Automatic annotation (TrEMBL):
Species, as recorded: Oceanobacillus zhaokaii
Protein name listed in UniProt: Sporulation protein YabP
Domain of life per record: Bacteria
Encoding gene per record: yabP
A Pfam family matched in the record: YabP
Gene3D superfamilies on file: 2.60.40.2000
Segments crossing the lipid bilayer: none
Listed GO biological process terms: sporulation resulting in formation of a cellular spore
């Protein structure tokens, strides 16, 4: 593999975004830029498509691959919700106050 092929893969990983949910128990998300906060009931992820809030019960971070932007979460998933761009700062401020 040469330098240009490697660069193409890196760019693709940063721009693609997918969410795969199996039996409401295993969630795999690609295109994750940052995990802002998480606990056993709620995750706040910054993805290439905006902020994503995951709510559920007994949530656990099973895999975090920062280089590829892949996050795997295990637990009972109740809700997946995207925050629109005009509400991103509001969501980030709310969660930063909540998790101080």
């Amino acid at each position: 593999m040469n330098y240009y092929e490697n660069k193409e893969i890196t760019t693709r990983a940063q721009t693609d975004h997918s969410v795969k949910l199996n039996n409401r128990k295993n969630l795999e998300i690609t295109g994750v830029k940052e995990v802002d906060s998480f606990d056993n009931e709620e995750f706040l992820l910054q993805t290439v498509m905006g902020y994503l809030i995951i709510r559920g019960q007994n949530l656990q971070l099973k895999n975090l691959d920062v280089a590829e932007g892949i996050v795997t979460i295990k637990g009972k998933i109740y809700e997946l919700s995207y925050v629109d761009e005009d509400q991103q700062e509001k969501a980030k401020g709310f969660f930063s106050k909540l998790f101080r």
